């Protein structure tokens, strides 16, 4: 496959050197072309081989029939080491584009035209002169319009197909570049969008870039997270400092033993997934859930293709499209061949019939001559029988021809049904692909829900344990409080008993005091009676001297006065 694509690029360069378009190029120009090819493809120069190969044709120019075998034998078969395919393509492009097209009048730059040229080489048929057929033009335009974020217009392409009919349903590379440069399918879009669209399709089909984006990656040594520009190709996932691809930081080599899995959120990072390789694993964080799912799907597809030993998705798709076209072509050729055979058989029968008619005519003449010797009636009868026989034979033959034609129509219908079934199968395959993607998305969502449930469950368990602990603590506090209350109750009971005891003691003391007071009062009276008298002149009352103190006497006086007053009032 690779050398076929290299040959296509060289064919463009060779054709550009063929100025008169006679399929001939001078030997000196071929030497220059061969020298340039050897330089770019890192092959030792061998001018002697070129002289040897073309020694019989020393005088005039050389034909491409002679150069192609030389190319295969002395250049393509000697490629040993890896060489820069981009540089090789640029060299062939430089030789051919200035002679064929002027990008000044077009909406696209020289660089974009070069990318379209490379895409043409990838999608064109493996036949010379190189052309791209309607189906592949549609495939490319659909991809481009999708990359530009616009909608595909079926009517517009149907109109364009009618125009293509006048060009044998195919385009040369320069016609394809012009088609894009004139903006027939990209009206209303600016040049920058068109340029970005061309670049995206070029990256996928030519550079094998299946997906690219900024994501976070966890380091292996320092375990820190850093942003990197990731580029997915069929057998590797490379990561760079940024999208200019100048400084590559590493490659994750994909093989049949790798696997990719979703991871739950951790370390403050979300939308995580892990790529497990035989020697180490890589943890990556996408920008959102949708992107994470897309990346997992894309990497899984690569690993699946590696396990099946298949090429990258777009190469596999191109192979399938070509195989389908070849099958349809073979069926059409087969049908045409059958038709041809039927026609030939028909013509043979017609010739046989013509010969029979002539024989009949001669027989009739002969029989006319022998009429005299034979009875007219018998001759007519025989002739009628012969004519009837020939007529029935002719009728049978025509019937067979009609049957063959019916069979041919049925065959055509069956082929049409088969073609339709193939298209349905293709759409079913696409539907299955989409369902698989949806299933993967659903699985991821379920996984997410499961993780949330797990988290919720563990949270609930933790809360439950906390509540139980809290309840136990409260029960312990309650028991302590109850014990304290009982102790206080006992103490209060004791205090009450003590209080009653003290009250009784107090009562007893009070009674004692009372008796003692009475006794003291009596004693005081007695004491006073026997007290020594006052040194001053003693009062002498009816009760004898010193019976009352002055105070007591005052009191008695007062009460007498009151009684007296009351008596006066009564009168």
TrEMBL record:
Main localization of the protein described in the UniProt heading: membrane
Bias (Basic and acidic residues): 553-571
GO molecular function, one term: DNA binding
Example of a GO cellular component annotation carried by this entry: nucleus
Keyword annotations of the record: Cell membrane, Cell projection, Coiled coil, Cytoplasm, DNA-binding, Membrane, Nucleus, Phosphoprotein
PROSITE patterns found in the cross-reference section: PH_DOMAIN
Chain ranges of the PH domain: 208-304
Residues in coiled coil: 314-519
Classification via InterPro entries: EF-hand-dom_pair, EF-hand_SWAP70_N, PH-like_dom_sf, PH_domain, PH_SWAP70
Bilayer-crossing regions: none
Subcellular location: Cell membrane; Cell projection, Lamellipodium; Cytoplasm; Nucleus
Region annotated Disordered, chain positions: 527-547, 552-571
Functional summary from the UniProt entry: Phosphatidylinositol 3,4,5-trisphosphate-dependent guanine nucleotide exchange factor (GEF) which, independently of RAS, transduces signals from tyrosine kinase receptors to RAC. It also mediates signaling of membrane ruffling. Regulates the actin cytoskeleton as an effector or adapter protein in response to agonist stimulated phosphatidylinositol (3,4)-bisphosphate production and cell protrusion.
Subunit structure: The SWAP complex consists of NPM1, NCL, PARP1 and SWAP70.
Protein's name according to its UniProt entry: Switch-associated protein 70
């Amino acid at each position: 496959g690779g050398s076929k694509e290299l040959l296509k690029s060289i064919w463009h360069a060779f054709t550009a050197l063929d100025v008169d378009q006679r399929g001939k190029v001078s030997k000196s120009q071929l030497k220059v072309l061969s020298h340039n090819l050897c330089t770019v493809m890192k092959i030792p120069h061998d001018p002697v081989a070129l002289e040897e190969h073309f020694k019989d044709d020393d005088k005039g120019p050389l034909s491409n029939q002679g150069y192609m075998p030389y190319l295969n034998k002395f250049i393509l078969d000697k490629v040993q080491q890896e060489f820069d395919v981009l540089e090789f393509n640029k060299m062939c492009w430089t030789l051919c584009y200035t002679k064929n097209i002027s990008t000044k009048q077009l909406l696209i730059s020289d660089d974009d035209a070069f990318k379209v040229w490379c895409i043409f080489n990838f999608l064109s048929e493996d036949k010379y002169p190189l052309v791209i057929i309607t189906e592949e033009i549609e495939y490319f335009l659909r991809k481009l319009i999708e990359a530009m974020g616009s909608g595909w217009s079926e009517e517009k392409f149907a109109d364009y197909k009618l125009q293509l009919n006048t060009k044998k349903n195919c385009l040369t590379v320069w016609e394809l570049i012009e088609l894009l440069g004139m903006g027939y399918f990209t009206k209303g879009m600016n040049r920058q969008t068109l340029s970005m669209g061309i670049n995206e399709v070029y990256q996928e089909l030519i550079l094998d870039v299946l997906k690219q984006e900024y994501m976070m990656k966890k380091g292996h040594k320092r375990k820190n997270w850093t942003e990197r520009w990731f580029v997915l190709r069929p057998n590797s996932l490379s990561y760079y400092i940024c999208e200019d691809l100048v400084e590559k930081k590493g490659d994750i080599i994909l093989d049949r033993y790798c696997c990719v899995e979703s991871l739950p959120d951790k370390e403050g990072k979300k939308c995580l997934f892990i790529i497990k390789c035989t020697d180490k694993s890589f943890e990556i964080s996408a920008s959102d859930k949708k992107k994470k799912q897309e990346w997992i799907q894309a990497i899984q597809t690569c690993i699946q293709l590696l396990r099946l030993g298949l090429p990258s998705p777009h190469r596999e798709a191109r192979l399938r499209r070509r195989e389908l076209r070849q099958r349809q072509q073979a069926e059409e050729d087969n049908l045409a061949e059958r038709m041809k055979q039927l026609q030939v058989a028909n013509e043979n029968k017609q010739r046989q019939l013509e010969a029979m008619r002539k024989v009949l005519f001669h027989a009739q003449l002969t029989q006319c001559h022998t009429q005299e010797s034979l009875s007219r009636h018998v001759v007519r009868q025989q002739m009628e029988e012969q004519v009837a026989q020939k007529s029935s034979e002719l009728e049978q033959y025509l019937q067979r021809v009609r049957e063959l034609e019916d069979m041919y129509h049925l065959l055509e219908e069956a082929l049409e049904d088969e073609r339709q079934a193939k298209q349905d199968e293709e759409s079913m395959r696409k539907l299955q692909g989409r369902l698989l993607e949806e299933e993967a998305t659903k699985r991821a969502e379920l996984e997410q829900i499961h993780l949330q449930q797990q988290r919720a469950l563990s949270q609930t368990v933790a809360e439950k344990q906390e509540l139980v602990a809290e309840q136990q603590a409260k029960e312990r506090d309650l028991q302590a409080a109850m014990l304290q209350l009982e102790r206080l109750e006992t103490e209060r009971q004791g205090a009450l008993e003590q209080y009653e005891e003290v009250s009784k003691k107090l009562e007893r003391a009070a009674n004692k005091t009372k008796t003692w007071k009475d006794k003291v009062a009596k004693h005081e009276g007695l004491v006073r009676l026997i007290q020594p008298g006052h040194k001053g002149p003693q009062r002498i009352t009816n009760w004898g001297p010193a019976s009352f103190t002055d105070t007591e006497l005052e009191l008695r006086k007062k009460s007498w006065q009151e009684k007296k007053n009351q008596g006066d009032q009564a009168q």
